Amino acid sequence: CKVFLDLKFHDIPNTVGAACEAAAKMKIFMLNVHALGGKQMLYQAVQSLHKLAAADKKIKLPLILGVTVLTSMKDQDLAEVGIFNKVEEEVKKLTLLSKACGLDGVVASGQEIEMIRKATGPDFVIVTPGVRPLWAAQGDQKRIVTPKEAIEKGASFIVVGRPITRARDPRQAALKILDEIN
After folding, report:
1. Of 143 and 169, the one with more pLDDT
2. pLDDT at 84 over 90
3. CB 3.0–4.6 Å: which of 14, 37, 63, 147 could bond 30 by disulfide?
């Protein structure tokens, strides 16, 4: 199977670069870093992976994504931590920074997919968390979409956690989600 290492690295550039290298050696498919770590950290994450791949031709580089704004946050939550942009503005700013630093894509709410696609084009990867089927509880997620909406808007991948992991029958829950998408 393909593994998405969803650890959201966020530290000084050297530490994040080393963490990305260690993750790539585990042959993962995709990993993420917090875009709020800034230009130097994002650039170091990408450069560390390229350096590793140049040194070891057997290593296939994982996709590297920038986490924009967590789906549990709205405008007032950003203001509480000193970010006074609206969520959509902040997501766009962090998306463009991620792209400029060479990341493969971003992690962003389904509510921002269309704006991101317009700003970055069709090949930029968008992983969409906070996806909740019609029959699932919202939980602590604030900016949600259904699986079908996420796919229709252009998500490359969706993240559906608790509706599957906490279901009595996870397999049946996953099949129900696939039916909802189709």
Report:
1. 169
2. yes
3. 63
Which of 172, 167, 171, 150 shows the shortest CA–CA distance to 159?
A: 150
Sheet holding 157-158, edge to edge: 4-9, 30-34, 63-67, 105-107, 125-128, 157-158
Q: How many Cα atoms occupy the beta-carbon half-sphere of 170 within 13 Å?
A: 6
Around Cβ 171, how many Cβ atoms within 10 Å?
9
Residue 141 has which token pair? 């997620």
CB 145 within 8 A of CB 131: yes
Neighbours of 11 (CB within 10 A): 14
More confident residue, 29 or 58: 29
Active site residue 8: yes
Count each helix (H run) and each strand (E run) in the chain, helices first. Answer: 8, 6
Measured at the CA of 169, the angle between CA 172 and CA 163, to 5 degrees, comes to 80
**Dihedral (CA of 96, 92, 157, 36) sign:** positive
* Average confidence score pLDDT of the chain: 95
pTM over 0.85: yes
Residue 120 has pLDDT above 80, yes or no: yes
Spell out the alpha helix ranges (H) of 8-146.
Answer: 13-25, 39-55, 75-80, 87-100, 113-120
Is residue 17 within 8 Å of 48, Cβ to Cβ?
Answer: yes
